[in-house]
Each structure stands twice: as C-alpha cells, then as structure tokens.
Write a structure and sequence with these properties.
Blueprint (H helix, E strand, L loop, with lengths): L8 H4 L54 H4 L1 E2 L40 E3 L11 E5 L6 E6 L2 E7 L2 H7 L7 E5 L2 E9 L4 E5 L11 E9 L1 H6 L3 H20 L2 E7 L9 E8 L4 E8 L19 E6 L2 H5 L1 H9 L9 E7 L4
Antiparallel strand pairs: 1-13, 2-9, 3-4, 3-7, 4-5, 5-9, 6-7, 7-8, 8-9, 10-11, 10-14, 11-12, 12-13
Length: 344
C-alpha cells in the first residue's frame, strides 16, 4: 500500500485562526436509514447540453500526484447537505474539471463476451433485481434483498467500463440518491445491465455479460494490494466522470439498507468565485495519511478541499482508500451512490 512521506505542515496548509466548534454534520439529513424498493428506478435524466468545462493549464500537468500536496483541510466551510442545499452556482461559473480522460488500459483486452439488446432469457427464467457492488480482483458482489452473492466476471473490462459511467439503470435507495442496478439470471449466470435512457426508437437496451458463481472465500482470497490499488484508481475516474455530469459520489456500505455512517462524500463546490474538489468523510479517519494533519477536535466529520482539476478530482480515489482503511471494512462490503450535485 502506498504510504506518502509525511510532509511539513507549513508547506501544505495556510495559517488558520482557531476554528469555531463544528455543528452537527448537515449530511445527517442525507444519510437516513431507509430500505429501498428494488423496483423503483431512477427516472430517465433530462437531455440537455452540458456546461462547458475549462481545460486545465497543460504547463501544470504532472506525471503523477502527491495527494498530500493537493488537498488542504477546508478552514471554515460547513458540510453542505446534498439533499437540501439549493444554492445555484453563478451563471458564468462551470465545473473546472476538464473532459473525461479514461485511464489507459494496463493490459490488452480479452475478446469481449458481451452482447447488446434485450435481457437474455427463456420461458421459466427468473430475473432478479440486484444492486451492483465494486468490481475487485475479477469478482463482483451483487446485492439481493436477502444478502450478497459473489460472481467471477468473464469480462471485467466490459463491466468496469459501464459501472459509474452514468449510462446504466439505477434504483433509488433514498431521496435523490441512486445506486446502479441490474437484472440477474442466477440459473444462467447472466447479468443484464440496462441503459438509463431509451434510444431514438424508444427501445430500452443494455448489455449482458456472463458471470460464474463463486464463494465469498474465493472472492476474498483473490484480493491483493495491487487489486485494491486498481480499484481506487478506477474510483478516481468514476468520480471525474460523475462531476462532469453534475453529480456527487458517495462511498458507503453496500446493499439495500443504508446507514448514515461510515461514508465518503465527493463533489464539486464553489465559493462563488472558484470551484473546489471536496472530499468529506465521517467518522474522522484518525491517523490516516493526508487526513491526519490538523484533524478537527470537535465533531465527527472531516473535509478536505483543493482547487478542482482533473488531478485533484482523481486524487479523491486515493483519499477514499485512506479513509476506508480506518473503517475496518473490506471493499467488497462497499457500494457507490450517486445523486445530483445541489451546488450546480
């Protein structure tokens, strides 16, 4: 696991006055415990032009990044509630994240074993609505109402390319909070990932992929540090694509029941002049790299912010990894939620 060298705080943070005691996190109103209805899917998004995205200064590009030098603790901004904050962004302001740049593939893709169209099935097939977990080490957890099952992906690249890309069907787990859903045929080992929107003919298509049943022990045994690093690098790309769509991303426990904590909430916010990449987590990740410097003494929420660029937005994946490591949870126990960013 990557452990950045401890930086000199004076090099990272601006001098700040003693912060006032933090109020109770406003994000509590977002993270209410609620059991979702599996059949309630997200409405198709309205079709409208995306705001222009300024390009970053190429002279500032770096081959890599040091997360500790990208983020600083937010000095006084209180956590905003994604469900209730209706403050519009100025008309002339737009997200400073540049166009989505997919990560280079580390290895050649295998032959795609997917097919597009209607859900595969035959008389007597039973398709189950499932929530999709995080793809890790070639395995995929699928959350049904009665628990989670594990499956080995025959084409991991095809699955990862759809998850978090904003093109797949979603199920509402709480007000204006959605998770990606799919249809599973356990007997055939087929997962049908439906599209969010219909095509010009009115057809709601999607992509199907074959899965092989696996045990929990097999899935957990396949996970190593390299696989975890790839997962959080992928998460950084998911966040970058999401903020371009005007959405927030929440990393929290998977399944249909959603507790208020633990959670990492990632979005763009503006102070009226500039846009910032903001990563908020609760509980406070005590002792975690980057997070451990100048942690708040009151409350149980911590916020890091940095000027919004592709680099800092992608770094949210690494910051999430550091925070999750303090939760005592395995990545297979996590899920991603999405929703409209109220600051846009």
């Amino acid at each position: 696991m990557f452990q950045p060298d401890p930086p000199e705080p004076a090099d990272l943070f601006e001098p700040q006055s003693q912060p006032e005691p933090r109020p109770e996190p406003s994000s509590e109103s977002v993270y209410r415990r609620r059991r979702a209805a599996p059949v309630r899917h997200e409405p198709e998004p309205a079709r409208h032009a995306e705001p222009a995205s300024p390009q970053p200064d190429p002279s500032q590009a770096q081959p890599g990044f040091d997360a500790e030098r990208l983020f600083r603790p937010e000095p006084s901004a209180e956590p905003r509630d994604p469900a209730s904050d209706d403050t519009p962004a100025p008309a002339d302001e737009a997200s400073s994240a540049s166009l989505f740049e997919p990560a280079d593939e580390a290895t050649p893709r295998r032959a795609v074993r997917t097919r597009r169209g209607r859900p595969p099935g035959s008389a007597g097939d039973v398709l189950q609505t499932v929530l999709v977990g995080l793809p890790l080490a070639g395995y995929l957890p699928l959350w049904q109402e009665d628990g989670v099952t594990f499956w080995r992906m025959t084409d991991p690249d095809a699955v990862r390319s759809r998850l978090g890309a904003g093109i797949g069907s979603r199920s509402e787990i709480d007000e204006r909070r959605y998770r990606e859903a799919a249809m599973l045929s356990p007997s055939r080992g087929t997962l049908f990932m439906m599209n969010r929107t219909r095509d010009e003919t009115g057809h709601l298509g999607g992509t199907s992929t074959q899965l092989e049943p696996a045990t929990r022990e097999e899935a957990y045994a396949a996970v190593d540090d390299k696989a975890v690093s790839e997962l959080y690098a992928w998460l950084g790309e998911v966040v970058l694509a999401s903020v371009r769509r005007g959405e927030f991303v929440a990393v929290e426990s998977g399944g249909w029941e959603i507790p208020m904590r633990p959670v990492v909430l990632i979005m763009l916010r503006t102070d009226g002049r500039d846009w910032h990449s903001v990563v908020e987590t609760s509980p406070i990740p005590e002792g975690a790299p980057v997070w451990r410097d100048q942690q708040p003494v009151d409350g149980d929420t911590q916020v890091l912010a940095s000027p919004a660029t592709d680099q800092t937005i992608r770094a949210s994946g690494l910051l999430t990894r550091f925070a999750v490591a303090t939760w005592g949870m395995h990545p297979f126990q996590l899920g991603l939620s999405f929703g409209p960013n109220p600051t846009l």
